[in-house]
Amino acid sequence: MLNEASSHALIPAAMQGGTRYDPIADFSHIAIAANGPLILVSAPNFPAANAAEAVAKLRAGPQDNMPYASSGVGSMPHFAAEAVAVSLMLGGKFSHVPYRSGGLMVESIARGETAWGVAVLASAAAQVRDNRVRGIAITGLERFPAFPDIPTLAESGMPGFDIGNWFAVVGPPRMPEGTVAALNRVINASLADAQLRERFLIAGISPWTRPNTPADARAFFQAELTKFKGVVERTGVKMEQ
């Protein structure tokens, strides 16, 4: 089964009362497939010339003049934007304007209805290329190859900031070790294929390049769950069942 960060890190960390499944104990972790970067985007007239200036502007406020958009309450872009606000060490809150999809969210920023937001790169890439919104910074630790001139938040005044949407392959609990190992080898071989990697990049996701044994995948899941629990604790944003 292919899963993503929302189902196995964000929702288990944020759901009030927890989920009916344990994202660690109830699955066999086979391999990580890809990382789906998020990008902080702003309206075209946002008063900052680069990522560092944008971070400084958000930090300086006033926050009530810079509402942010998301693709829905409890979505990854919602939590990522709240994490940005908390990381800026602000005392107040930006106004949150949720939309029904990533496309509507980005369109609201392009029209100037909202000032900024953190979008899934795949939802925002075309608008960024067409200069309808400004790509300010990637929220992960690495720049995205298709937009090499867009820095990360970590290198733009928010050291260590790292939130992204990833995709992984898991199976039912207690899968035979030989089966897990065989699937892991096939997935890693596929990720080394140049044509597949190019298709991933076109789709706005990065093929996984870090160590990727089943043990690595399990450790990554645990680290991401711990990280999102920290995001929930810092932001105070929770999801209702």
List the helices and strands and how they pair.
Blueprint: E1 2-4, H1 5-14, E2 28-36, E3 38-42, H2 51-60, E4 68-70, H3 76-87, E5 96-98, H4 102-110, E6 116-120, H5 121-129, E7 134-138, E8 165-171, H6 177-191, H7 194-202, E9 206-207, H8 214-235
Parallel strand pairs: 4-5, 4-6
Antiparallel strand pairs: 1-8, 2-8, 2-9, 3-6, 3-7
Can you characterise this structure?
By secondary structure, the chain is an alpha+beta fold. Helices cover 40% and strands 17% of the residues. It has helices at residues 5-14, 51-60, 76-87, 102-110, 121-129, 177-191, 194-202, 214-235, and strands at residues 2-4, 28-36, 38-42, 68-70, 96-98, 116-120, 134-138, 165-171, 206-207. The protein has a five-stranded mixed β-sheet. It has a four-stranded antiparallel β-sheet with strand order 1-8-2-9.
Write a short abstract of this structure:
By secondary structure, the chain is an alpha+beta fold.
User: How much helix is in the residues?
Assistant: 25-40%
The assigned structural class equals alpha+beta
Major sheet strand order: 5-4-6-3-7
- Along the chain, the helix and strand elements come as EHEEHEHEHEHEEHHEH
Number of helices: 8
* Fraction of residues in β-strands: 15-25%
Assign an overall shape: globular
Number of DSSP E strands: 9
